Amino acid sequence: MDFKKSIAVCITGALQEAFGQAPLTAEEIQQVLEIPPDPSLGDYAFPCFRLAKGLRKAPAVIADGLREAINAPFLARVDSVKGYLNFYINRVLYAREVVEKALREGANYGAGDEGAGKTVCIDYSSINIAKRFHIGHLSTTMIGHALNKMYRFRGYDVVSINHLGDWGTQFGKMVCAYKKWGDKAAVERGGVDEMVRLYVQFEKASQDDPALADEGRAWFKRIEEGDPEALEIFEWFKSVTLRDAERVYDILGVKFDSYAGESFYNDKMQPVIDELQAKGLLSESDGAHVVDLEAHGMPPCLILKKDGATLYATRDLAAAFYRKRVYDFTKCLYVVAYQQNLHFRQWFKVIELMGYDWHAQLEHVAFGMVSYEGETLSTRKGHVVYLEDLLNQSIAKARAIIDEKSPALENKDEVARQVGVGAVIFFDLYNNRIKDIDFWWDRALNFDGETAPYVQYTHARCCSVLRKAREPDCAPDYAALADPESQDVVRLIEQFPDLVTTALERSEPSMITRFIVDLAQAYNKFYYERRILDEDLPTRKARLGLTRATATLIKSALGLIGIQAPEQM
Ligand code: ARG
């Protein structure tokens, strides 16, 4: 039974009966139905002012009239309050419908197929070659990964793209430095750190010897033109960088379908530039070619530099056309820090000015900055926290806590990994993505806070109850779930499918994270207030059912944000 839908149908029926007409269809009414912030105001509420115009009556009059006319056995009560109709569903029926649906659908509860046949491209992580993976990359990686899972949960095909930062003059300098002073074994061993060392050495040396800069530029040109020697070194730098990054991706459980980065578009920009030219969108400014965006309140979008070199935006334009053509996306998301807001607004506008209505399918999913225990990350000041170190530390700390709290636990290493990694991801995905994040160990790993360990522990608690209880072989008595604590859990479970929809509309995985905390808190209250292993077997059966539904949902919701749920902790 779909309560929202049933209520909407009731309202249309009552409209006919009380007023002889229904200005809104049942579907429209369903859209308008609200979930009151305070459950004492009902499970659902309908704001009658939406009918005021159509019926030419005051909302309060409409609400009173409808209340008289509504009569459905699944509703325990309907109140008319200040122009709102508040609906209270029969508690026993509500519990039965929700719990049985959740149990029936299991890990698929809340999934959907509205995305069938549609493709979403998600550009995330998008790391830069020869740079270490630091905690600033955590958000793009995990928000993108969560959106990936959420879209798949709704039946979409997802193409995950790591748009590598693998183009720029610095790579010429790096190759040049390697040719002069580099050592193959050192790069293999040191990875990105060694490449950075070479680059720093190059920058220092070129202060004394300006000719060096020219040499560096020449090497960059060779890379761009596909000179075999230059390319071989550069491709090797790339694979060494990716090898280091892959270790982090493995820990996080993240995978990509494509690593086509900026350099992939070297030969795909000319047609875009030609088209911009043909459409009269290019203008010259100080010898550079730009798309003027003054009419749209933005600085010009740079397409070609004075020397003919292309830019970051030129590559993003070419990439968007490529993705549209190859993947035929219905949406293309860019999970990139808000510092790049203007960049995305600019080139999205360029696509629009070119006359492509799919500009509206492009979305910049912006997020805030990450600092570490009160310190912003700055390479210059040396406050760099590498993601791999952070994750490994977190696993070690989780391990220490487990050793202390549950010395007898089997597979402690595996659980420590799930908890430690989960804690970092959870912390990252807990707040609205646009907010800046300050990472603190005591907050991320607190077993009593709004953290991964807390919800994972709740899940393990449910599993333990289910393991210990022999499930009675009788029909559940859902009257046992009519009390407020059980109802709070039931209500949250019921709201989950709609919540996933909204989280996707807003590209906001944090809604899932917060939901999991709410569910865990509600379940724990239920756990302390109600005796699950009641002597009355139908009662016990109902409470175990609620426990199982909660465990399954915590696990699958955690899965959506990329976190695992151990059965024992
Ligand atoms: N590599 C860029 C950076 O680290 C992010 C790239 C984002 N994706 C894109 N298509 N522009 O800032």
In short:
With 569 residues, the protein is α/β, with parallel strands linked by helices. The chain has helices at residues 3-19, 26-32, 49-55, 59-69, 91-105, 138-153, 169-181, 184-190, 192-208, 211-225, 228-252, 270-278, 312-327, 341-353, 387-405, 412-428, 441-444, 452-468, 484-505, 510-529, 537-560, and strands spanning 44-47, 75-81, 84-89, 119-123, 157-161, 282-285, 288-291, 301-304, 331-337, 362-367, 370-372, 375-376, 437-439.
- Report how far apart the termini are: 36 Å
Give the strand order, joined by hyphens, for the main sheet. 5-4-9-10
* Distinct small molecules: arginine
Number of DSSP helical runs: 21
CATH architecture of the domain at 119-281 and 316-365: 3-Layer(aba) Sandwich
- Please mark out the parts with pLDDT under 50 across 5 or more consecutive residues, or reply none: none
Estimated helix fraction:
40-55%
Helix and strand composition category: alpha/beta
- What fraction strand? 5-15%
Gyration radius (Cα, Å) is 29 Å
Count of strand segments: 13
The mean pLDDT is 95
CATH topology of the domain at 119-281 and 316-365: Rossmann fold
What is the CATH homologous superfamily assignment of the domain at 119-281 and 316-365? HUPs
> How many strands, which pairing sense, and closed or not: the largest β-sheet?
4 strands, parallel
The CATH class of the domain at 119-281 and 316-365, by name, is Alpha Beta
